[in-house]
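Exercise 7b. Backbone tokens:
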């Protein structure tokens, strides 16, 4: 009996190992990068431009569908959507005012339910993005008060208890920084004290999310400057070195590698990326926030954006080569279509693109036979047209539409090319 039990346990362990092995090579749709998060933020100020403000249900649904289709077509698989920007809500709530950025009055339908449904239709993970402390642009709830954490938890529970979100997401606003109207109110507090109050809240939110479901995730997107983070109460070093705070972290490294610091050009993106990786001693899931919105921008401090239209493309390549980094997030949705950013977007899409060929039948052909090949291009926004080419036209030709005609015995390669990317299929012509 004991021998059977040991054998059974071994089989279970073997199964677990095999399962983990299989999981480790799971590939995100359209790419060769395992479990890569390719995200975008949709901020409260983008509601109106996306056609979501003050709309009837039918038009709201249509515009939400278009927005998430656009996001999918740009290669993203995850959305951080602003659902609570100023102690408000974009869902019908008895506890929070309806967001004035979404509409003048609470609509007869549920915007959040529709948004989640539309995102999931396009296989996008939907994370409810909340600002924990902000009441207005000039006023915050006191982070030291227990009532503040209770207020935050109320919003979190309303969302995770009533909607099929994939996670809760916080941004980079904690204690006020210099220039904020309430900065002087908290300026006497040490950074250590600020962090202790914020940490208590973060742990409570994490526990609340996990009590609901282990499959729900909780993450934070802090500013890219670690010292600044700590000065406003964001204890990123603790979050990345101890369990029980966050499932993932997205530092906003919105700089290029041609940044002027002390009169010298500094590779600030590389520098910050290296710093954040070194801090992540607990192996927290890390994605990098990329400043797509800065595409084409003329900045006397950060010269890179004005000198190159391949900044984001290059930074994505670096995240993909970096151990301990599992993806990226773009700020923000409107930048995907903003005129000034289009060169950056085009180069970004080309950098992450893939081409695949599918044959209608087997890869063996008889002389005189014709076979139609189809190619798929990812991301979809690049379009599906490709250029076809045969490696040996004497053996087989291929038309502009992908029809292969076998001419004589031999082996030939047929290529489908889109920009700098190509796919190949080997076809054997038999007698």
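Sequence design result:
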């Amino acid at each position: 009996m004991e021998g059977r039990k040991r054998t059974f346990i071994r089989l279970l362990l073997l199964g677990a190992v095999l399962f983990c092995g299989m999981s480790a090579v799971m590939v995100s749709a359209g790419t060769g990068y395992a479990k890569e998060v390719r995200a975008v933020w949709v901020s409260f100020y983008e509601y109106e431009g996306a056609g979501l403000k003050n709309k009837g249900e039918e038009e709201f649904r249509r515009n939400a569908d278009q927005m998430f289709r656009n996001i999918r077509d740009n290669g993203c698989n995850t959305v951080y959507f602003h659902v609570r920007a100023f102690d408000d809500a974009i869902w019908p709530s008895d506890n929070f005012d309806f967001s004035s950025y979404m509409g003048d009055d609470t609509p007869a339908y549920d915007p959040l339910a529709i948004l989640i449904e539309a995102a999931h239709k396009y296989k996008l993970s939907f994370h409810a993005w909340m600002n924990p402390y902000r009441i207005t642009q000039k006023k915050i709830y006191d982070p030291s008060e227990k009532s503040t954490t209770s207020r935050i938890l109320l919003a979190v529970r309303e969302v995770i208890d009533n909607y099929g979100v994939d996670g809760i997401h916080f941004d980079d606003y904690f204690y006020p920084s210099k220039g904020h109207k309430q900065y002087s109110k908290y300026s006497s507090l040490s950074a250590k004290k600020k962090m202790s109050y914020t940490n208590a809240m973060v742990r409570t939110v994490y526990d609340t999310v996990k009590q609901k479901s282990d499959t729900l995730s909780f993450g934070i997107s802090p500013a890219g400057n670690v010292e600044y983070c700590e000065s406003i109460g964001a204890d990123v070093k603790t979050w990345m070195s101890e369990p029980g705070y966050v499932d993932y972290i997205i530092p906003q490294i919105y700089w290029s590698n041609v940044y002027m610091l002390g009169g010298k050009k500094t590779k600030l993106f590389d520098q910050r990326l290296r710093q954040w990786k070194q801090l992540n001693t607990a192996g927290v899931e890390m994605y990098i926030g990329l400043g797509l919105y800065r595409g084409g921008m003329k900045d006397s401090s950060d010269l890179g954006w004005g000198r190159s239209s391949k900044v984001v493309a290059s930074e994505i390549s670096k995240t993909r080569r970096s151990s301990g980094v599992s993806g990226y997030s773009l700020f923000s949705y409107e930048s995907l279509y903003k005129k000034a950013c289009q060169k950056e977007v085009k180069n970004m899409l080309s950098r992450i693109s893939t081409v695949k060929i599918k044959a209608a039948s087997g890869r063996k052909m008889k002389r005189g036979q014709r076979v139609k090949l189809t190619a798929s291009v990812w991301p979809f926004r690049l379009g599906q047209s490709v250029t076809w080419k045969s490696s040996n036209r004497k053996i087989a030709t291929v038309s502009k539409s992908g029809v292969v005609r076998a001419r004589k015995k031999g082996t030939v390669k047929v290529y489908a090319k889109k920009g700098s990317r190509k796919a190949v299929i080997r076809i054997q012509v038999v007698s």
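Instructor comment: Confidence is low (pLDDT under 50) at residues 1-29. The radius of gyration is 25 Å.
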